[in-house]
Amino acid sequence: MSEHVTIVDHPLVQHKLTLMRERDTSTAVFRQLLREISQFLAYEVTRNLPMATKTIETPIQEMDAPTLAGRKLALISILRAGNGLLDGMLELIPSARVGFVGLYRDEETLQPVQYYFKVPDILEERMVIAVDPMLATGNSSVAAIDLLKKAGAKNIRFLCLLAAPEGIARMKEAHPDVPIVTASIDSHLNENGYIVPGLGDAGDRMFGTK
Ligand code: URA
Prior knowledge:
With about 210 residues, the chain is α/β, with parallel strands linked by helices. It has a single domain, classed as Rossmann fold (3-Layer(aba) Sandwich), CATH 3.40.50. Helices cover about 30% and strands about 30% of the residues. It has helices at about 10-20, 25-45, 85-90, 140-150, 165-175, 200-205, and strands at about 5, 50-55, 60-70, 75-80, 95-105, 110-120, 125-130, 135, 155-160, 160-165, 180, 185, 190, 195. The chain has a 7-stranded mixed sheet, with helices on both faces. Strands 8-10-12 form a 3-stranded parallel sheet. A two-stranded antiparallel ribbon has the order 2-3. Strand 2 and strand 3 form a beta hairpin. The radius of gyration is 18 Å and the shape is globular. The site of uracil has 10 residues, from helix 6.
């Protein structure tokens, strides 16, 4: 993956994303659509997983067949909305290890502060995929990736559903080595930090909170 940002413009992804954006889409449908889209995004973000060959026997003959190589990859959910992407991704990559990063924003400094951090071991030998549906200001994503690098991660990708240009610029500046996979780059952030046109608060929409 050489480009810094990959937009997954598959028609099924774009159709499902439109349904998710609609104000009147129910919590249950929103959740199901996120699960479905997460699988397309997971397919794209894992395109360059390392491969090896192993010798197998088909019912017809022996062959050298492709197989995944190296350590199991690590999916890291940035709480809480990242959890909405996990289930679908784990259906596709059932043996992935899973970690969680919890950050809140300090009201005085406006900086992200860690309140939870639990990640798989030997991160330095794994492909690490940090997931958060919304890349808005980029502050929490950049902070989460700072923490993952401090924990040893070297091969990190960032997967989101929607991105704002501001968030992409912030990530590119702070972590130019971390490719981003998303379903859309929207117009801009509004004064409250929401992505425009966006889909509202992803956590609230998937968990049915306000
Ligand atoms: N987080 C969200 O859930 N939605 C936005 O639009 C921006 C950040």
